[in-house]
From TrEMBL:
Source domain of life: Eukaryota
Chain ranges of the Neurotransmitter-gated ion-channel transmembrane domain: 103-194
UniProt keywords, alphabetically: Cell membrane, Ion channel, Ion transport, Membrane, Receptor, Transmembrane, Transmembrane helix, Transport
Major location (coarse): membrane
Protein name as catalogued: Glycine receptor subunit alpha-3 like protein
Bilayer topology: Multi-pass membrane protein
One Pfam family linked to the record: Neur_chan_memb
Transmembrane regions listed in the UniProt entry: 103-122, 161-185, 243-263
Length: 285
């Protein structure tokens, strides 16, 4: 079984019947096709309709193959034995409703919940960190939960890609907060330093002794402070970055979701269409 496309995967199981020690010269097996047989159109008849819990079962397809094996005879002759095998191919298309309800919808809601940190105050450290870390741990728990339903495989599945992107998005919100808060803290420290410089008692004495010079110094200091504030707002304003992320993060995740579901659902719907065509009936999926 292959699980690269899980949970959009299609599994094909082949059942083989053959005579291992009897050649076609002695007994040949084939699908019954006598015109007087009521099963002429359907050599394989299901005794009852089977509905697996996790799969849609397609109509079995019948095949036969003949293999030739060479044996050593006399010096100038090589004997050849023919063996016929009958094959039945069962096609299983996985039902994805359970995965959507149990994995996809909750993980998408958790990612959306992590975006609430962008609407919180930048100095609300406990609330923002707690929300991001809780969302991250919840997604990790979901990964462990879905892994229990699969055999241990060493390759990446479609579900792994979805959950990895969800975890990366939540982790990115935590990194974004750390960067913005660091910039915010540095700007606050700089403002405190500037305010302390303006409140320096020596500066007040100089202003009383030399009013003209002190006024020029004060005006220059005020201009420098305003210039630093303007530069910070233009290049690394943390509040502005937070406001941009309110739209950037949801936009990126929605773009990924559109690409992910368009690709996987197209292949899945094609498999369902083939399955319904083989069954000769239209069922509501």
């Amino acid at each position: 079984m292959k699980f690269e496309d899980y949970p959009f995967d299609v599994q094909r199981c082949i059942f083989s019947v053959g005579l291992m020690t009897t050649t076609d010269a002695e007994a040949e097996i084939k699908w019954f096709s006598d015109k007087t047989c009521p099963y002429m159109e359907a050599p394989l008849e299901m005794l009852r309709k089977i509905e697996p819990l996790q799969f849609y079962l397609g109509e079995p397809t019948l095949h036969s193959i003949t293999k030739e094996y060479f044996q050593g005879g006399s010096e100038n002759e090589v004997e050849k034995d023919r063996f016929t095998y009958l094959l039945v191919n069962f096609t299983f298309v996985r039902r994805i409703v359970s995965s959507i309800i149990n994995i996809y919808v909750p993980s998408a809601l958790i990612v959306a919940m992590s975006w609430a940190t962008f609407w919180m105050r930048l100095d609300s450290i406990p609330a923002r960190v707690a929300l991001s870390v809780t969302s991250l741990l919840t997604l990790c728990t979901q990964v462990q939960q879905y892994k229990r339903n699969l055999p241990p495989v060493s390759y990446v599945t479609a579900m792994d890609i979805w959950l990895f992107v969800c975890i990366f998005m939540v982790f990115s919100t935590l990194v974004e907060f750390a960067v913005c808060f660091n910039i915010f803290a540095q700007s606050q420290d700089q403002l405190k330093k500037n305010s302390l410089q303006l409140a320096d008692p020596d500066l007040k004495l100089k202003k009383a002794a030399w009013p003209e010079i002190s006024d020029q110094t004060t005006s220059l200091t005020d201009e420098k402070v305003k210039q630093k504030k303007t530069d910070n707002k233009e290049f690394c304003d943390p509040i502005l970055i937070d406001s941009y992320c309110k739209f950037i993060f949801p936009g990126l995740f929605i773009l990924f979701a559109i690409i992910y579901w368009s690709y996987n659902l197209t292949a899945y719907i094609n498999n369902i269409a083939v399955l319904l065509h083989e069954n000769g009936e239209l069922e509501e999926i």
